[in-house]
Amino acid sequence: MTDRDPIAAAHEQWVDHGWSDAADGMALITSVTRAHQLFVERIDEVLRPHGLTFARYEILRLLAFSRRRSMAMSRLGSLLQVHATSVTSAVARLEKQGLVERRTQESDRRVVLASLTPAGEALVERATADLNDAVFATPGLTPERVREATELLSALRSAHGDAVALPH
Amino acid sequence: MTDRDPIAAAHEQWVDHGWSDAADGMALITSVTRAHQLFVERIDEVLRPHGLTFARYEILRLLAFSRRRSMAMSRLGSLLQVHATSVTSAVARLEKQGLVERRTQESDRRVVLASLTPAGEALVERATADLNDAVFATPGLTPERVREATELLSALRSAHGDAVALPH
């Protein structure tokens, strides 16, 4: 087993054990996991000084994009493609940090809205500028290969049931 | 903001806000995150009945690949590219499950070895067969695009400092 690339080494083992039909898929999925881990490390490093995780940043970002700086909790969950419980706990934490407020919608008291506070609005713009500079503008591939990779991942997401439209 | 694809919608917002130089990178990184999430869901579903997480499965798999069915904890960490503390807690859990045993190496008492038990060996083979069938053999892209995507992710990992050798 080579030390150089654990994923290539695992691929070799898979083939050697007679699992050739699954070896390439294993290598792809393990590569996605590793790439995710590398990005999470870089993103966490940028967001930690702002007191944010990526999950909480994404909520602030969506609220800042919305016209009223506020959104139903259920809509946040569907846009972020995560469970309602994850949204609830992240928003509760953001509320404690003074970055978000929760209130019920006046026209329908069953709907809980999350709204950005002025502090949340200021913070998300600073965090976005830092993330753009330190991570998103330099993902590690040429612009052409970034698009190629995103296209392949879109096809992958689509195969797993995600609604997908390619960035243009 | 379109509802159809949250990542394409975010990309649009990024461009509209004047962050064009970071928009494609943001879409790629968010796509990696989402693809990871989709795979984790499928993998967890397969491993749950076996009482395993993917992290613990990977440890069993590496031990089963090794000649002596045993490996230094430090080597597990470097092959899995995770922190020593993560390996320690995963192995402690596997030990409680009766799937792994820890002992010090006789030639060097400072080295802690993790060894597969017969129960661990049997379980990892069943779990691998299930993962191969239900996930790895059907990653959601054509074989050619699977290889293309893995190659792009390898380039990405390499750009972030990973030692990379392409599967052949």
Mean pLDDT of chain A: 93
Specify the oligomeric state. Answer: homodimer
List the secondary-structure elements of chain A in sequence, H or E.
HHHEHHEEHH
Radius of gyration of chain A: 20 Å
Amino-to-carboxy terminus distance of chain A: 42 Å
Describe the structure.
The structure is a homodimer of 168-residue chains. Chain A has 168 residues and is mainly alpha-helical. Helices cover 64% and strands 8% of the residues of chain A. Chain A is built from seven helices and three strands; from the N terminus they run αααβααββαα. Chain A has helices at 6-16, 20-47, 54-65, 73-80, 84-96, 118-136, 143-159; strands at residues 70-72, 100-104, 112-116. In chain A, strands 1-3-2 form a three-stranded antiparallel sheet. The radius of gyration of chain A is 20 Å and the shape is elongated. The termini of chain A are far apart. Chains A and B meet through helix 1, helix 2, helix 3, helix 6 and helix 7 of A and helix 1, helix 2, helix 3, helix 6 and helix 7 of B.
